[in-house]
Amino acid sequence: MQLKADVLILGGGFAGMTLAVALDRYNISSIVVDTSDPIRMLEKGYDGRTTAIASSCWKLLEAIGLKESLEGKGCPIHTVRTSDQLKAPDLCFESSKDNPSGYMLENRYLRQALYEATLAAEHVTLLQPAHAVETERRHDGVSATLADGRKITASLLVGAEGRASPTRQAAGINLTGWNYNHAAVICTLFHEKPHHHIAHEIFYPKGPVALLPMQDQEGRHRSALVWTVPRQEAEAVKNLPERPFFAEVTRLTGGILGKLDFASHPTAYPLSFQFTSKMTDLRLALIADAAHGIHPIAGQGLNLGLRDVAALTEILVEGRRLGMDLGDAILLERYARWRSLDNFAIAAGTDALVRIFAVPGKVASFVRRVGFKAINNMGFIKNFFLAEARGDSGKLPRLLTGNSL
């Protein structure tokens, strides 16, 4: 059996499915090949994590038709407070209520919305679970053979399989990366006091602790906890009994949310950094974690991937309108130029933050707090950082502004 589409997307995670749904709105067909079992993937306990989605990326999701399915499920972030070990001054970024800096969304809601949109899309074929055992990129097109013998042909191959992307590896694209001596202990907490839509990030030499606001559940206040610990301590921290776990979180956060309880139990994820030498090759484009994987310190990981999606969608739609082959090197070069600098700047910035706040000692802490005070007194710098957090800086793809192409 042979299948044909304009674009072959290997990887049906958030970025891969978002790209397929976005292209569908402009009559560009795609086939998404993903190894996940859809029944298990949609189970409530499959992924209990939450994701901070920048306001520009939220506009992208709404622009491709997910507004109704995500309505009321994302918790707006109106204020971001950052401090060095709870010492004054803190760094405060405030957004207007009608233009929050972002939204906290449970991964399961986004996965369900994208899955349903993919199934409903006229020009998307979702093959799941499925696995490509062989891919070939030629000057006249790309092809893939699946494990069950089906063959797929397309004009462009998109690698969206995540950090261990076999598509990137097969293309021989070099990767720079390292493991941090950190792991993120993640869970959802019920808490006594309302969060008032404030996201807190408190930096310690061992790693930051973040409390991120979520929608109330059954009348109880909720927040997501991202507690960065030394990698060798992750299992011990994750498995702490409730009383010492909550006591330590309360100490590290200054008890700002009052009495705590588990809404979901902790899991731990090792943290690493990786960045590709290039995002494109012959009839190939890499998006999201297949091209870049960063520390979650600034909550920009998924947002970078969605910005890739918005840029690639715009370039392919414009190429189609001009009658160009969607795998044309000119289009891919434009995508690489558009996204490489932004991705590098964010990746380098987050890595620098990790290293700056990891420096121990009173002098280092004093210098950081002097920096906080200076930034608080310079509105144009605060506005720059807030624009970066929202994803509003630089030349934006139109989908990130909520507009159609």
TrEMBL record:
Keywords: FAD, Flavoprotein, Monooxygenase, Oxidoreductase, Ubiquinone. GO terms for molecular function: FAD binding; monooxygenase activity; oxidoreductase activity, acting on paired donors, with incorporation or reduction of molecular oxygen. Its cofactor is FAD. Residues 5-318 form the FAD-binding domain. Pathway: Cofactor biosynthesis; ubiquinone biosynthesis. GO terms for biological process: ubiquinone biosynthetic process. The keyword Flavoprotein applies. It comes from the Bacteria. InterPro entries: FAD-bd, FAD/NAD-bd_sf, Ubi_Hdrlase_CS, UbiH/COQ6, UbiH/COQ6_monooxygenase. It holds the Pfam family FAD_binding_3. Signal peptide: none annotated. Belongs to the UbiH/COQ6 family. This is Ubiquinone biosynthesis hydroxylase, UbiH/UbiF/VisC/COQ6 family.
